[in-house]
Amino acid sequence: MSTSKEQISRLDSLIFDSIVKLKEPKGSDIAAIAAYIEDQYRSPPNLIKLLSTKLKHMVASGKLVKVNHKYRIATNSTKTSEKRRCSSLLLLEGRPKDSPKAEKTDANVLSKSQIDVELLKMRGVTAQEVAAAAKAVAEAEAAIAEAETAAREAETAEAEAEAARVFAKAATKALKCRRLNI
Question: Is 24 exposed, middle or buried (0-12, 13-18, 19+ CB in 10 A)?
């Protein structure tokens, strides 16, 4: 039985394979990728939704490029073995991969006098100012949570719209085939 990581990496491979085999110069749309995978392999009933989610992830990670609802393999995309080699070299150097500390070596360092000034400012703050600042932070956190929820809902709506577009395209294609056969 395969694990979920194997299935995810297999879906990556299937997507790459379908884009390469379809040889469309402007890229392949999700319907073409899904059709190729369905023709070549056994696919789950929710393939379109899985593809939509996976394609977004691959675009976000830079593995694919999306232009006008078509996907192409990114030109700067390297082979996984090379990525693994590079990540192991980073670990050997003692820096974790994609570590913010590794990139931010020029952090803003305050002098002793600057720290003393900041401490004096903090000592002069009243309880009302602290409460107002805490309220502002709480409101900002609530706004961030609402924005994250809205972003998730927008992603879901976009995936559903993409699935509807693919369904409409497939239905149109089936209708054309029926007309030709009649």
Answer: middle
